[in-house]
Structure prediction request, 345 residues.
Amino acid sequence: MKTLSNIYLKQYTKKFFCLFLALSLFTVTPTETVSAAPKKIQKSQTPLKKNGRLKVKKSSLINSKGKKVLLKGVSTHGINWFPEYVNPDAFQTLRDNWGVNCVRLAMYTEEYNGYCSGGSRRELKSLIDKGVKYATDLGMYVIIDWHTLSDGNPNKNKKQAVSFFKEMAKKYRKHKNVLYEICNEPNGNTQWKDIKTYAKTIIKAIRTYDKKNIILVGTPTWSQDVDTAAESPIKGYKNLMYTFHFYAASHKASYRSKVEKAIEKGLPVFVSEFGISESSGNGKINKKEANKWIKFLKEKKISYVCWNLSNKNESCSLLKSACKKTKGFKSSDLSAAGKWFKKML
Ligand code: IDC
Prediction:
């Protein structure tokens, strides 16, 4: 009997072992597939859920719990040229596969089909609304960017800017994830005092409705002279930040020291646009310099947004020009700049 029970025991152990093996194979396989696929972020764990409404404290961006926070974003190309990338799947890919927590909606004011140069205002605003909705549903931060460029001085289209931002602020004051960028890159002869005049009017218009959300103010010379802005920041309003833009193949250490000067003076700086190409948006990319910039920004806890999500045949585009997808981008769809950015994140 003893031997028999021993035999049975052995057989049962064997069967149990096989069952256990089968079960564990069965359970391990799907988990592995899931971890190779994008990790879907739970609704309770989105960047917005974790950080809430952002504020500016001294020179830093902080979350609702008072902790310093870093926005890591991607800018659309002009929504006038590339409206197709404003879609929820694209934003979700950026959030879940790349680790992006912020999207910038760049709306050119004077270029092709711009807001002040014959573009359909209704369509452009509808794209902004869609972009804000998708970002909100995904719990991401979103920048509404009045993308001045060839207009040089933002005062040129100030009237339209006032009514645009009033409309946005009225609509989005309850959104905790919206930031307003009131002028992309003042340039030409535009002085800091001109930008201040413009900014004061726009900020006042926004604050009539939206008392809290962050407002990003451009600085002279294509948003590079944060050191000049730091000499005489705008007074009387909370939650203002000043933008600094760079393109790593053109702008190096001397530009970092401009940022350093500005933050030493207590200026809250936000990099609402950068590329790793030349400042033309094309030419060579410089990964070595780009890495130096990111190291610097991380140390200083300065948020950054990369230009741009499109497949335009330029080295600053994050997608290869052969990539016709507008969502679900794989590593093989990314340009050299795109690969660098995703890996860096
Ligand atoms: C560039 C685009 C390019 C477009 C051009 C319009 O990459 O496809 O034809 O604008 O003039 C900026 C600007 C940004 C530029 C970018 C690259 O904010 O609009 O985009 N850049 O030149 N500042 C520095 C570089």
Observations:
- DSSP finds eleven helices and ten strands in the chain.
